[in-house]
Automatic annotation (TrEMBL):
Domain AB hydrolase-1: 33-180
Matches recorded under Gene3D superfamilies: 3.30.300.20, alpha/beta hydrolase
Pfam families in UniProt: Abhydrolase_6, OsmC
The organism of origin for this protein: Patiriisocius marinistellae
Protein name: Osmotically inducible protein C
Top-level taxon: Bacteria
Annotated InterPro entries: AB_hydrolase_1 (IPR000073), AB_hydrolase_fold (IPR029058), KH_dom-like_a/b (IPR015946), OsmC/Ohr_fam (IPR003718), OsmC/Ohrsf (IPR036102)
PANTHER family, A to Z: OSMC-LIKE PROTEIN, PROTEIN INVOLVED IN RIMO-MEDIATED BETA-METHYLTHIOLATION OF RIBOSOMAL PROTEIN S12 YCAO
Length: 405
């Protein structure tokens, strides 16, 4: 994932701070906006991990801090649920101006509720996913305890949430009282809705998911996040959510499929005229891209051909070492094989520098083993590394038979 800082202004002219997460090996096929949970920020772990998972599936994801939170300007005390919805709309306007209008909205907790309201105000949005969202924004009052009465009676109060102090004014509650996710969900006008919720959610009960689901019209879907807690602190759970959203959204927004390349060979490469160095590869049943660095005219959407070759040597070495160790009953917790390619002078070459032709293809390989081995075992594993099939191929006499078809 490539991530860069961005800023944009909301309807009041306040500067909001965000990050734009992009896929590594391609241009984004669609853009999404992530609305973070109540009093969280764009850098909260669940936000980062879900966004990363979406980016790995080809989405560009804008995650930003609502007014008065994180790195965004403004006074949080003057914000409310409606201002969060308005911030989401301005985030969509920013993407439309600078990149491409968003087709997907994702919201976590109260951010999910805000996303439901914002979706009807963003024409480009075709799909919407909520994570642990309340069916009624007023639900957040429960987090205030007795301070809720202080706010109602005195007009404002300093409230500590998740270890941080916030000033809340009565207008925040007054605004919440006027909102209903159930009513907003019923007005999505054909936009697809995915509701993700954990039955173990102790902050926002799963009853809320049921109420939103029943209020919404089709197309609508529900996915249980069994075993997850409300904030999705566990990275595996957050990544799962991102993958599920990406897979589901592909039914409702245009996500290009990999170009199908048919071949009777094990590997095929395809390069169109307008793609520069960015080459589509089919390796067995797997697709990926090869490219060159930007400095030589490529897009850096994939490894270079020599990096792929070095990768083959690294992968084969690791597999061979682990296979041998298992056969011997030795436990290798992890093996790392670090490989670089260059053209160097031969190690046993006399007067090498007299001719450039004396240079040979050289792979520098370093192996890191994690496990309990004695010195004899370590030496044996080093010997086994040189017996990996790709190593043997690189050392053997080879031939390449080429024909035009």
């Amino acid at each position: 994932m490539k991530s860069s800082k961005i800023t944009f202004t909301n309807a009041q002219g306040t500067t909001l701070s965000g990050r734009l997460d992009l896929p590594l090996e391609q241009e984004p096929h669609n853009f999404a906006i992530f609305a973070h949970c109540f009093t969280c920020t764009k850098d909260f772990s669940a936000v980062r991990n879900v966004s990363k998972a979406l980016a790995s599936e080809g989405f560009g994801v804008l995650r930003f801090d609502f007014t008065g939170l994180g790195d965004s300007d403004g006074d949080f005390a003057d914000t409310n649920f409606s201002s969060n919805v308005a911030d989401l709309v301005e985030a969509a306007n920013f993407l439309a101006r600078e990149h491409k209008a968003p087709s997907l909205l994702v919201g976590h907790s109260l951010g999910g509720a805000a996303a439901i309201f914002a979706a009807s105000e963003i024409p480009s949005v075709l799909a919407l996913a909520t994570i642990g969202a309340p069916s009624n924004p007023v639900h957040v009052k429960k987090q205030f305890g007795h301070q809720a009465n202080v706010i109602e009676n005195d007009g404002q109060a300093n409230v500590t949430l998740a270890g941080r102090d916030f000033i809340f004014k009565k207008q925040f509650f007054d605004d919440l009282d006027q909102q209903s996710c159930e009513a907003a969900a019923a007005k999505l006008d054909g936009k697809a809705l995915l509701i993700l919720h954990s039955p173990q959610d102790a902050t926002v009960s799963i009853k809320n998911a049921e109420e939103i689901y029943h209020a919404a019209k089709h197309p609508k879907s529900f996915v249980t996040l069994d075993g997850s807690e409300h904030l999705l602190i566990d990275k595996k759970n957050a990544s799962y959510v991102g993958k599920v959203i990406a897979g589901w959204a592909a039914r409702y927004i245009e996500v290009p499929l990999p170009d199908v390349i048919k071949s009777t060979h094990q590997v095929v490469a395809s390069l169109d005229d307008e793609d520069g160095f960015t080459t589509l590869l089919k390796l067995g049943s797997h697709y990926m891209k090869a490219d060159e660095p930007v400095r030589v005219g490529g897009n850096d959407y994939g490894p270079t051909p020599y990096e792929l070759l070095a990768g083959s040597l690294s992968a084969c070495t690791a597999m061979t070492i682990q296979m041998y160790a298992k056969r011997k009953g030795w436990l290798i917790e992890n093996v790392e094989v670090h490989t670089s390619y260059s053209r160097d002078y031969a190690a046993d070459c006399e007067a090498c520098e007299e001719s450039e032709s004396n240079k040979i293809d050289t792979f520098h390989r370093e192996i890191k083993l994690i496990g309990d081995f004695d010195e004899k075992q370590r030496k044996r594993l080093l010997q086994i590394a040189d017996k990996c099939p790709v190593h043997k191929t690189l050392h053997s006499e080879t031939q390449i038979i080429t024909a035009l078809v």
